[in-house]
Amino acid sequence: MDREDRLEELRLTGEVVGKLGENEEGFAAAVDAFRARDAERFQSVLAELGIIAHCHLICRWLCSKHCVFVCLKLAGPVEGPAELDIAEMREFAAVTARIAADDELLRRLVDIVEKEDAKEFGALVKRLKLERFSHQLCHWLCWTRCRLVCELMCPPPPLITKVAHIPTNQIDSQGFGAGPSIPPGHTPPDDKPQGEGDHPFGGTAHIEGSFLTVAGATHYKVEYADNPGGPWTPILAPMFDLQLVGLNLVSYIRVPDGAGWYDVADIGLLGPTQLTDWQTPSPDGLYYLRLTAKNGGGTEFHSALVAALVDNTVPTPAQISIRQGDRRLDCCETVSKENGPLTITVEGTDDNFSELTVTLKGGCGVAHSIYYKSYNGNTADTGAPAPGIDIVWDPWAAGVDPCCYVIEVHIWDRAIVNNSYAGRHTSSNWHSLTIA
To answer: Which of 144, 168, 186, 209 is the most exposed, fewest CB within 10 Å of its CB?
Structure first.
């Protein structure tokens, strides 16, 4: 952390602690909760004041004040050299190692500091002949306790972890998801030259996450909006779950209330990570997902937003036409070598274009690739917009046997639909002819 980062953290700490201090009742409640290690109450106070996002900064500030007070109480006024003494630091390092290796002694010291028992602390320090290290010893023990207390008091906020089995750390700010899915099999690893990657979401998308970091969480909901500031629409999907009834595994459905709140007490054997199923909305576009948990006191805790690009639209109908020379061919026409190569014109687009293929099929089990194109990582590529792509192809040079055939054009998008890339949208068309 450089100097500017340290200054910014100090400024931010001062700002949020100052805001806490403006509320006398809230400040007292936060301090009481901190000293009692009551995480639910501590989080609730900070959330009510709109500063829960800076929980760690506030907790560390309280730690600093708390440990100064405790160590003055236990070790008395600070006495010692005014300058840093490296040799003395090395001595205390050896003392630290010796105490840490003695489990019984370490536990006793922790208990004494916990109880803030000045008499017992002084007697033990004297017996160990550590008087000149008393303040350092106290601060080491107090700050270690404080660090652990702050982990309890300020756990991570609720978190959406997957959308349609794609981990949210694989979804970018444009709402595109990258493969592979977890578990594997639903969506493959990215292969952009083959059209796989930068996935939007369609159909139903299963949402997973975590909210049990909120102390005393009783309810949760998942919402979506087309703007980071809302308004928010709750997801009201019924959720399949399992429970044991005697020795039998029984399925059941748990349902949120009208505001989208699922009751934590209703969660069965599938566990609290399986949040909901999002029926992706219309129109297509960029949406944001948010997980909210609330505790018994009704205080709400929000997750960070997750962007999700929705695509429920099939590619524009694929078009295909064939010319030989200047003549446009009707279906089922016969073409011969002396009239020259064919010009195949194809059209078809999608905002989230994946790949386009032109293939000859027919004869006795013949399948011959004529043309292939993918988006190859260029999300601005929409495929084959009007007036289309002209493909000059000579079936005789390609060694195609005389017979009847169909030339097919297929265009696909990159959407993960109903939690699977195999469900992506496609459009196709074909043109029949006989090659003489």
So the answer is: 144
Q: Classify the phi-psi angles of 170: left when phi > 0, otherwise alpha if psi is within -120 to 50, otherwise beta.
A: alpha
Task: Write down the domain spans for the chain.
Answer: 3-153, 159-310, 319-435
Beta bridge partners of 72: none
Q: What whole-number distance in Å separates Cα of residue 17 and Cα of residue 59? A: 10
How many angstroms separate the CA atoms of 329 and 341, rounded? Answer: 13
Question: Locate tokens 């292969």: which residue?
Answer: 191
Q: What CATH class is the domain 319-435? A: mainly beta
What pairs with residue 103 in β-bridges? none
159-310 and 319-435 have identical folds:
yes
For the stretch 225-261, pLDDT in tens is: 999 999 999 999 999 999 999 999 999 999 999 999 9
**Fold of domain 159-310:** Immunoglobulin-like (2.60.40)
Alpha-helical (H) ranges within 76-169 are 86-101, 103-115, 118-127, 134-153
In 3D space, the residue among 255, 158, 132 whose CA is nearest the CA of residue 210 turns out to be 158
